[in-house]
Amino acid sequence: MEFLRSHLLTGLIFSPLILGAAMFLVPAGKASWFRVWGLVSSFLVFVFSLCIYRRFQGESGALQFVERAGWIHQSGISYFIGIDGISLYLVLLTTLLTPIIFLSSWRAVEERVRDYAFFLLFLESTVLGAFLAQDLFLFYVFWEAMLIPMFFLIGVWGSAQRVYAAQKFLLYTAAGSVPMLVAIIYLVFQHKAQFGSYSAALPDLLRLSLPAGGAASAQGLVFIAFALAFAVKVPLFPLHTWLPDAHVQAPTGGSVILAGVLLKLGGYGFMRFAMPLAAAELPTFSPWFMWISAVAIVYGACVALVQDDIKKLVAYSSVSHMGYVILGLFSMNEIGHMGALYQMLNHGVSTGMLFLLVGVLYERKHTKEIRAYSGLARTVPLFTITMLIATFSSIALPGTNGFVGEFLILQGAFLAQPWVAVLGGLGVILGAVYMLWLCQRILFGRPDEEKSKGLTDLNWREAVYLLPLVFLVFWMGLYPRYFFGKMEPSLRQFSQRISAPAAAEVNHAYGN
Q1: Positions of the chain with pLDDT lower than 50, given as ranges
Q2: Cβ within 8 Å of residue 351, ≥6 positions away
């Protein structure tokens, strides 16, 4: 028992993988057994994460529940994990969405159910490991390992073009990660040169004194290497082209975990690694990233406007919404940083809901075409209400979670670059246009008996897995202070860490 208390995060990371692997010790039987196994396993992991949450000291911005042990001593690689206010709610979002995905896949996945459950639990373990890793090589291991289960979730249980979409996802993400690996190796050798020993631990690497002075400097190149990997994952325009294919071809569960959790690893990577490690060069890069993210916001919204596939529309909305995250991060102020982290959580909730609702329609009519649905408000009222709530969250209606995140981001962006904030604000208007137009067409269009044929309202199972997300939309929108309480100390430390070297570099440049 004492061992478990001192290794809580290790237990959290590896329990999904162990529980998933244990399914193969049981003879293959009815698919329902493995559905229950996966659901119960993921729910237990969620309860485990809540226990950690209750013990988390919100007033501290330092890492908590830290575990550190040597792994590859000769290379300075260690098993180093910990949690703070930046990763806390991302971990909870991951453990919440996983049992929801199992419930949503109850009828949608009928073949190789045991394999599906295993890969989903495997993916949960790798994502949790990435959020909790404090050693750069350990992070890289989890970062790359998550490609394996996601590749199979898309490639085996996806739609007609699933293999192409899975290969594209794998190639984009793996290719983007190669420069990051090179940068990690460089940093480890720099630690050896400056301190006499190898280390890949983040706190040790933050002590490095790397030459700064533009994009071609050591810090600039390190930032570019990390930023490329994370920009692909976000995904940030123009590195986003893998995402629509992956979403459209993935099963509902794959789309939910991809939008709800995996994309957040890009934003998290910027916060945890890229920005702190190259803080002195952020004044060089932040204006560029702010403009690129503003373009991504407007571009994603404009492309979403012309889609005739519901899933593809929601996929491009993700490009737009995740653009807000990058805009907030590179505003270089605490308000923008708080909005960026909150927006990551909001996007996981609202876009997760939208993909779940698309899955509900697909289970009934086996099509994602917008023109296949019309006047649903008359026949499926409960679905309609839930769809409207998800839409209001997505368009940042006041009182919903989306409003809080986007308002803080635009406020932070305005303090940094007002014209970029204006362009980002245009995305709010365009977002309302494409989402409300979608609702007008499928929910309130002309009633059509042929299009409504075979459609039934939400059943109890669907209501159960959607209800927690509906609750979060309003809880996070009406009482954000509850969530900010545990975020603020860590966010304040992050903002100070990336601002101090940048200010020192500016003073040095002007001879102060």
Answers
A1: 503-512
A2: 259, 260, 314, 317, 318, 321, 394
Q: What pLDDT does 444 receive? A: 87
pLDDT at 158: 82
Query: What does the DSSP 8-state code read for residue 214?
Result: S
CA distance 63 to 126: 20
Predicted pLDDT of residue 3: 62
Query: What type of residue is 58?
Result: G
Q: What are phi and psi of 205, to 5 degrees?
A: -70, -25
Strand partners, 133: 81
* pLDDT of res. 475: 95
HSE-CB of 10 using CA atoms within 13 angstroms: 11
- Residue 507 makes CB contacts below 8 A (sequence gap 6+) with none
* Separation of alpha carbons 36 and 21, rounded Å: 15
Mapping DSSP to helix (H, G, I), strand (E, B) and coil, where does residue 28 land?
Answer: coil
The model's pTM: 0.91
DSSP 336-378: HHHHHHHHHHHHHHHHHHHHHHHHHHHHHHS--BGGG---HHH
What does the pLDDT look like over 142-172, one tens digit per residue? 999 999 999 999 998 888 788 999 999 999 9
